[in-house]
Each structure stands twice: as C-alpha cells, then as structure tokens.
Amino acid sequence: MTLPQVxxxxxxxxxxxxxxxxxxxxxxxxxxxxxxxRFRRADLDAWINAHxxxxxxxxx
Length: 60
Hints:
The chain is mostly helical. The chain has helices at residues 3-10, 14-23, 41-50; strands spanning 30-31, 37-38. The protein is elongated, with a radius of gyration of 14 Å. InterPro entries: DNA-bd_dom_put_sf, HTH_17.
C-alpha cells in the first residue's frame, strides 16, 4: 500500500502519521530505494488491531 492509501484508511493527516513515526508508533513500513514508503496490508491490519480500544460490553 502507498502512504496516501494508508492515510486515507487511518483518516489521519500526513503530519500525524509522521509524528507517529518519530515516536516509533507508526505501522511498519518498507522504504523503497527512491525514498517512498510502502506498507504491507497484513502489517497495517496487525497495527490497527493492536491500537484498537476494545470496550467491554456492559450488561444492565
């Protein structure tokens, strides 16, 4: 996946994504020889799952 595709899927601006990269908390990326980033779908899905807050069901 390309960076624009990932940004669209995550619904975040580029600046937020690069801040996450600086903090070491962005999805894993592959840097191509031309400097562009690419992302594996499986890696992005795993990252999303690891960063999803699961709200336990409450029964009233």
